[in-house]
Amino acid sequence: MDTAAQRPYPPGSRPPFPTGAQIHATALSIAAAQHESGAIPWFPGGGTDPWDHVECLMALDVQGLHEPARAGYDWLRRTQRPDGSWPSRWLDGTVVEATAETNHAAYVAVGVLHHWLSTADDEFLARAWPMVRDALAFTLALANPDGTIGWARSPQGSPDPAALVTGCSSIHQALRCGVSIADALGADDTSRTWEAAADRLQHALLHRPGAFVDKSRFSMDWYYPVLGGALRGDAARERIDRGWDTFVVPGSGIRCVSDRPWVTGAETCELALALASVGDTARAAELVASMQHLRDDDGSYWTGLVLTDGKRWPVEHSTWTGAAMVLAVDLINAGEVTGRVFGDPAGELDDLEDVAS
Questions:
Q1: Which residue among 192, 220, 276, 342 sits deepest, i.e. has the most Cβ atoms within 10 Å of its Cβ?
Q2: What is the pTM of this model?
């Protein structure tokens, strides 16, 4: 393998921003990895988890691949457990990790809202409603008294109350999306319950840092309060600026872990999504361009790169890396649906209908 082709872009160079044809090729590479069941694995031959699966479905919808996206949501409806959760990992259709993670369950609401706004398919929304309702009910059943959400329930049914910044930020976004879905369907009582839970969780994320497990070494804990919509405006931009030099490697992307010598494409593009959601599209575009050294000829993306030796690691083409890139580019280019879901998912119902129509 030619390591020279894997190295980051040299200082002073301007890496290319992906073209429309390249973005579509990436979406096709995600669809090509989809199982006949509708599940999308992390990479061909790899496992599947609900959160990354939904992220991939949103990328398919961005590029107009609505049928494979719909098949993915049908798979989620078929595999949801009676308590509203999903196992955290399948491999070749078999559950290999039965733990139920709250952020996995909640994220279904983000994807369902995105698909409905992308397709204006009211029948889909009605079919998906019980799945969303039960998923968020499971998530809120693990709420702590301080408004945070415990991260998981064990296969034996024991809740783990430990709250994670990244997971709870994602759940915050999901609850806001759930409010929009409930409003669209006239489920007013449910909407108010979810909105109150989102408010409590947002307050905890902004004002109770000690309530969360310290994972500040990880870049996701840095930008996810912005990506999940808990932090907006000047406060969001200040948070991003404070961590910039710790995590961003110019011309390469961002570190997944602050004290480890590798950059990862998905985290780079999620940071770009966070930046674009608060209007900083210039830096968002630079970040997306900087991770293009991970692109392969078929449009898929390697997961990451080790800075010390220029080798790709892990040695896999991850569907969720490509999905994050597609979503980031769409938001940078002012994609209306992605902008609503990652910007203001709890907007007025009339606005939602305008987007969906």
A1: 276
A2: 0.94
